[in-house]
Specification:
There is one protein chain. With about 190 residues, the chain is of the alpha/beta class. Helix content is about 40%, strand content about 25%. It contains 6 helices and 8 strands; from the N terminus they run H-E-E-H-E-E-H-E-H-E-H-E-E-H. The radius of gyration is 29 Å and the shape is rod-shaped.
Length: about 190
């Protein structure tokens, strides 16, 4: 893993680049406290480690005695773990026409339930073509019926809204309701 020297300068100041009169020193095998910068550098050199400025905005700035490459590795590892833990929101789209039949409606409803159980958001919309824009009330009724049928699985994030030739509704999965029924049957077995 190569580290660009220009990038490392921008991230943290190390050793002689620290230009403040005194620093708060932390780290392993170091007596913690406030030291003049020269003395802190001497302590780091005696331990054959680097003096790394962790918190430059503190008064006095906080520096750690640590191997700089190891410190950068730990920072990258921590960032990678945070990125992995973050939840990625997936939005699934379901398209209706203003005069969607019951069979098609039920088929799309079943798919929406599956998407919501997976934890995805659902964006349902009615697409109006040509003169069918005259039936926008039918589209709104259809979307409200859709949201009502999914009330056990989702909550409405955005009510039906006409954007150009589309009327859109956004549904977000209910976390508590979706997770509880799956756990109960396992406990009974």
């Amino acid at each position: 893993m190569k580290i660009n020297p220009r990038d490392s300068k921008e991230l943290y100041r190390i050793n002689e680049r620290i230009r403040v009169p005194e620093v708060r020193l932390v780290g392993d095998n170091v007596e913690q406290g406030v030291y003049p910068t020269r003395e802190a550098l001497r302590i780091a050199e005696n331990l054959e480690l680097d003096l790394v400025e962790i918190s430059p905005t503190a008064t006095p700035p906080v520096c750690r005695v640590i191997d700089y490459q190891k410190f950068l590795y730990q920072q990258k590892k921590r960032q990678k773990e945070q990125k992995a833990k973050s939840v990625k929101v997936v939005v699934k789209e379901i398209r209706f026409g203003p005069q969607t039949d019951d069979h098609d409606y039920n088929f799309k409803l079943k798919h929406a339930k599956n998407f919501l159980e997976e934890g995805s958001k659902v964006k349902a919309y009615v697409f109006f073509r040509g003169r069918s824009i005259l039936f926008k009330e039918q589209g709104e009724v259809l979307l409200l019926r859709f949201a009502n049928d999914l009330e056990d699985y989702a909550r409405v994030e955005q009510l039906p809204l006409l954007e150009g030739k589309r009327m859109i509704i956004m549904l977000t999965p209910k976390k508590v309701a979706g997770a509880a029924p799956k756990k109960e049957p396992k406990a009974e077995e």
